[in-house]
Amino acid sequence: MDLHEYIRILRRNWMIIISVGLVGLLVGGGASLLSKPTYTAETQLFVAIQSSGSVQELQQGNTFIQARVQSYVRTVQSPKVLQPAIDVLGLSMAPEQLAPRVKATADPNTVLITISVTDNSAVQAAAIAQAVADSLITTVAWLEKPQTGGNSPVNLSVIAPAKAPSAPSAPNVRMNLLLGLSSGLLLGLAIAIVRAKTDNRIRGEADLRALTGTALLGGISFDQDAVKKPLLTQAPLQSRRAETFRQLRTNLQFANVAGHARTVMVTSSLPGEGKSTTATNLAIAMAQAGHSVCIVDADLRRPMVSEYLGLDRNAGLTTALLGAADLNDLLQPWGEENLYVLASGQIPPNPSELLGSADMKQLLNRLSDTFDTVIIDTPPVLPVTDATVLAQHVDGVIVVVGAHSTRRHDLERSLAALELVDTKILGIVLNQLPSKGADAYSYSYERRESPRDGRSVRDAPISKRRSKSGDSDGASPETRNFGPVIATKRSSQNAPDDRLQPATKFPKSRLPQ
């Protein structure tokens, strides 16, 4: 992983890292509160040699003492020194129990010995330190006493008597809090890295790029309002959601710049990734750009398009495939634009056979000869074979991927299944992306105030909406700047007699109940 990947992991898992860091901070604070306070008292001794005072004797004595100081330091924790201190203070413990609480150190290149004692009582810590120092003086004098008799040439003197400390030496609350916080942050970072390495879900564009080279047509951010208002027409004109589908429409036109893909199938790997809402809103967006669009609800297991659009689905695709009604009578106009809907019809027991039949291929050919674009909503690829069967009859496929829900191996299997039937994958749409964070895909471009009259104006839309009469008040930017990206509707004057003509109304009386 490079630096950008680590930054992405931090942005994705910052809440986990901070939470674990705060837990570590609480653990450090709890350990400080539960720990019994201890006090440390110190005393310092100076080691000197008794001589006549000549320079040569002083130099020899100083070298002798520095060589012996480390031996005196190790002698402090011996029973020979600790037992007299225990007897003087009347402590009910053995020298082996007192030794861990007594520590002696010597400063380098000096003749100073520091004795520190730790105890739960500040007064007792000072008393033990002083008693140990006195016992060390007596022990060293006895050890260094010449065998021929006389006084010891080494003399130890207390230069800093032990005093009862005013504050406990442990626990160090600040150090414990800092240690707990740093340990928690490191643990949280380790959890985030392990989670990122073991997580096989597609969370954003970076994960998709690492998995496949298929073009990314767009990303749709998760919108809580879209749960109750899924349609593009229910969102404000300049909202982020509306602009996202307009961008998806434009990217699809560039992906199909040759204009050969007039029947576009929209599918996903698994249910719940938002393929039906994506197909419906894409059809609305293309119709708003001035194209004649027909959306076909070919999900004959869980049809949702007619439910989103508020239309009757009892008669539709299956009705036409069974020959119970003419296709002209089954198309339902929707909205003010040139958008027609072919509902699913009655749910059949054999959807795969119907979608893979020659009648289905002929139906799609009739629709593609009449409409600029035919968008087909199909079931997911992995649970059933409907999508792969129908993919052989369409010009292109759009795969919808639900961020944070689709796993990488599922998408790989879906793309492999579609490539196996030799279909053209136009691109992938990332759905349910977070609006903020490392995996955010959308951008905002808010309205501004006109500097001349102060009126609120909106930034120029991608294309101008059609009027109620169906006439456009200007050519769309796609047509004006780049030519006809998607093939325009053929003239009906030279059409054969069986050429499908879009219905102007929905004749319910002619449909079977």
Strand order of the largest sheet: 5-12-11-6-10-7-9-8
Helix content: 40-55%
What is the structural class?
A: alpha/beta
The share of residues in extended strands comes to 15-25%
Give the rounded overall mean pLDDT: 81
Distinct helical segment count: 18
Give the overall shape. rod-shaped
- Measured on Cα atoms, how large is the radius of gyration? 42 Å
Write the layout of secondary structure elements.
Layout lengths: L2 H10 L1 H21 L4 E11 L5 H21 L3 H11 L5 H4 L3 E5 L5 E8 L2 H22 L10 E7 L12 H26 L6 H7 L4 E6 L18 H16 L7 E6 L6 H14 L4 E5 L7 H5 L7 H5 L5 H4 L1 E3 L4 E4 L8 H5 L2 H13 L2 E5 L8 H5 L5 E7 L5 H13 L4 E9 L14 E2 L6 E2 L19 H6 L31
Parallel strand pairs: 5-12, 6-10, 6-11, 7-9, 7-10, 11-12
Antiparallel strand pairs: 1-3, 1-4, 2-3, 8-9, 13-14
Detailed description of the structure:
By secondary structure, the protein is α/β, with parallel strands linked by helices. It contains 18 helices and 14 strands. It has helices at 3-12, 14-34, 55-75, 79-89, 95-98, 122-143, 173-198, 205-211, 240-255, 275-288, 305-309, 317-321, 327-330, 351-355, 358-370, 386-390, 408-420, 477-482; strands at 39-49, 102-106, 112-119, 154-160, 216-221, 263-268, 293-297, 332-334, 339-342, 373-377, 396-402, 425-433, 448-449, 456-457. The strands form 3 sheets. It has an 8-stranded mixed beta sheet, with helices on both faces. A 4-stranded antiparallel beta sheet has the order 2-3-1-4. Helix 17 (408-420) links the parallel strand 11 and strand 12 (425-433). Helix 1 (3-12) packs across helix 7 (173-198) and helix 4 (79-89) packs across helix 6. It is rod-shaped, with a radius of gyration of 42 Å.
